[in-house]
């Protein structure tokens, strides 16, 4: 446990560890094998009072920031990465709603989230702009008391399961420029939401990622988040830091699980011909040490980024941009190393280590992708505009 955790975070971590042990870990391999959306995990997290992690205290939530998000997603992901992704996207959606919530949005969304009665998620990606999620083509038209929303969102985590979806849109007639969009809350029960065939992922198989077609969906004007013109503020102040921290925690959890799996195998496996265990072999000791060093370096970066972000340090941005890229690379590298160190036990179809490697690979394609994040980190450090 990090000695600098607040008493509140220590208590939240103990609560989530209990949920993981009794509810999330026991069903983790079924989630992967059956591409099962982890309803059991979301229910248990809700019953433990954890869904309002990012809801302000005034609305009944825990009022936590980036550090808590990274710590909680890491813990969940160590047992079940899909559950961490689903919980993480709920937390990111919550943070976006909370950033400039009106009294109506506080009452209808944040208080329900804090009470564990409402699941939300983020729907930004579109096939037309791919990894460049900040250039949506989904359009809104003003229509009396309503906005009419038309477009198709791709890869919506918690797709078809959430009570609301936080969407990015552009006003009809505007030419969309980078970062130029509005955020809206669309209720899961709204008429005109058409869920497309489920996406059958290589990894993160339980996240219920689906495409969502919005065909003239009417959304009350009260569901607009912030003011028109707030878009860039939302992208860089809320969406990016919360998303990057949720994902950095998720991939850190996979990296820790890979290290643990390798350590267990190195201790347990011994040869009959020599009586030697794998852990007595120098090459493997060295490789295991390299895994541990990479993990601890990544965790230090993630926690440093989270703390700087929570304090509002003016130089937090490059740390925050770098941490998901680094956590993704560390997770892939450690899962790959664990696959080697664990030998034939790991290199069988659907082994636990194989699942780690498949889940870790999602990091490089989930936007902002590793390449985009390194590009932005470099630009930020060199005093250039990110986009
Ligand atoms: C498991 C999973 C869950 C997801 N959940 C969500 C979600 O909840 N909500 C949501 O909105 N989206 C979600 N996404 C979508 C994700 O964030 C990306 O938008 C999507 O994966 C991009 O896929 P694509 O094939 O269109 O990528 P493409 O845009 O085709 O990119 C392909 C590759 O090219 C690279 N590339 C493109 N342009 C550049 C450039 N200028 N410089 C360097 N490299 C570049 C990208 O980095 C990427 O590696 C999810 C994706 C996955 C895999």
From TrEMBL:
Residues 246-366 form the Acyl-CoA dehydrogenase/oxidase C-terminal domain. Residues 122-217 form the Acyl-CoA oxidase/dehydrogenase middle domain. Keywords: FAD, Flavoprotein, Oxidoreductase. Residues 10-117 form the Acyl-CoA dehydrogenase/oxidase N-terminal domain. GO terms for molecular function: acyl-CoA dehydrogenase activity; flavin adenine dinucleotide binding. It holds the Pfam family Acyl-CoA_dh_1. It comes from the Bacteria. Its cofactor is FAD. Belongs to the acyl-CoA dehydrogenase family. This is Alkylation response protein AidB-like acyl-CoA dehydrogenase.
């Amino acid at each position: 446990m990090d000695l600098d955790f607040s008493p509140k975070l220590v208590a939240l971590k103990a609560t989530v560890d209990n949920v993981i042990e009794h509810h999330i870990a026991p069903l983790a391999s079924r989630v992967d094998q059956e591409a099962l959306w982890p309803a059991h995990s979301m229910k248990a997290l809700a019953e433990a009072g954890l869904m309002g992690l990012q809801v302000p205290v005034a609305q009944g939530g825990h009022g936590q920031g980036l550090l808590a998000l990274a710590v909680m997603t890491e813990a969940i992901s160590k047992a079940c990465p899909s559950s961490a992704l689903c919980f993480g996207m709920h937390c990111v959606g919550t943070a976006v709603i909370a950033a400039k919530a009106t009294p109506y949005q506080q009452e209808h969304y944040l208080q329900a989230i804090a009470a564990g009665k409402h699941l939300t998620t983020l729907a930004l990606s579109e096939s037309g702009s791919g990894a460049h999620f900040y250039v949506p083509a989904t359009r809104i038209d003003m229509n009396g008391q309503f906005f009419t929303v038309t477009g198709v969102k791709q890869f919506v985590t918690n797709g078809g399961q959430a009570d609301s979806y936080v969407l990015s849109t552009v006003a009809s007639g505007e030419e969309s420029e980078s970062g130029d969009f509005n955020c809206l809350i669309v209720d899961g029960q709204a008429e005109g939401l058409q869920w497309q065939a489920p996406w059958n992922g290589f990894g993160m198989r339980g996240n219920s990622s689906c495409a969502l077609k919005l065909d003239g969906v009417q959304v009350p004007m009260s569901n607009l988040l912030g003011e028109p013109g707030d878009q860039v503020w939302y992208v860089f102040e809320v969406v990016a830091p919360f998303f990057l921290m949720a994902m950095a925690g998720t991939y850190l959890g996979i990296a820790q699980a890979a290290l643990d799996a390798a350590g267990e195998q190195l201790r347990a496996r011994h040869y009959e011909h020599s009586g030697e265990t794998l852990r007595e072999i120098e090459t493997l000791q060295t490789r295991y040490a390299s895994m541990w060093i990479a993990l601890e370096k990544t965790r230090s970066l993630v926690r440093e980024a989270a703390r700087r972000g929570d304090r509002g340090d003016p130089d937090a941005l490059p740390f925050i941009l770098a941490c998901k890229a680094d956590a993704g690379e560390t997770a892939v590298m450690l899962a790959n190393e664990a696959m080697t160190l664990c030998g034939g036990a790991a290199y069988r179809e659907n082994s636990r280590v194989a699942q780690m490697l498949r889940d870790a690979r999602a990091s490089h394609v989930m936007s902002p992708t590793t390449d985009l994040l390194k590009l932005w980190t470099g630009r930020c450090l060199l005093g250039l505009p990110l986009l």
